[in-house]
Amino acid sequence: MAENGGKEKELTEKVVSEAEELPKTIVRRVVKEKLSQLSSDYEISLLRDSLQAFCESARIFIHYLSATANDTCKEANRQIINAEDVFKALEEIDFSEFIGPLRASLEEFRQKNADKKSASSKGKDTSKKAKRKEPPPAQSPGKNKRREVESDGNDDNAD
């Protein structure tokens, strides 16, 4: 029995760790883009171990930042973490140089979403108007024939 419990715990830990892992392709792309900006003279490649180290470092950073933001949120007697909590957490863990670029990126993201919302609401309005102008769809003759056959069948059962 103890052996069975150990296997279950190991399986659970493996599933949890896989769920927490960052996508390696995205991490590779981010690292390569940043390194290519710093050194445009030659192509940079990553060894599997270094990619794993980047992934694990990023995962730990996200956990630490989210725990710190959660503490900030709880101090304010709230249950939902907002962007300001993340900014305060970055300041607390001495990464305040990220706050400026992150604020700019967040503002750009919000602007794009606002533009998408306004475009989609305009699209909905025009589609509603177009639907009002169109006559209702006529029934196809196939449906009428089917109803006639069904009603003929009902007359047979009535006798």
Condensed summary:
The chain has 159 residues and is an all-alpha fold.
CATH class of the largest domain: Mainly Alpha
CATH superfamily of the largest domain: Histone, subunit A
H/E element sequence:
HHHHHH
Mean pLDDT rating: 79
Distance between the termini: 70 Å
Helix percentage: over 70%
Q: Please identify the oligomeric state.
A: single chain
Largest sheet: none
Topology at a glance:
Blueprint: H1 2-20, H2 24-38, H3 48-75, H4 83-92, H5 99-133, H6 141-158
Helix pairs in contact: 2-3, 3-4
Features:
159 residues, 2 domains, single chain, mainly alpha, 0% strand, extended, Histone, subunit A
Write up this protein.
This is Transcription factor CBF/NF-Y/archaeal histone domain-containing protein. Residues 110-159 are annotated as: Disordered. It is found in: Nucleus. Pfam families: CBFD_NFYB_HMF. Keywords: Nucleus. It is a single chain. The protein has helices at 2-20, 24-38, 48-75, 83-92, 99-133, 141-158. Helices cover 79% and strands 0% of the residues. α2 packs across α3 (48-75) and α3 crosses α4. It is built from 6 helices and no strands. The radius of gyration is 29 Å and the shape is extended. The mean pLDDT is 79. It is an all-alpha fold and 159 residues long. It has 2 domains: 13-94, Histone, subunit A; 98-131.
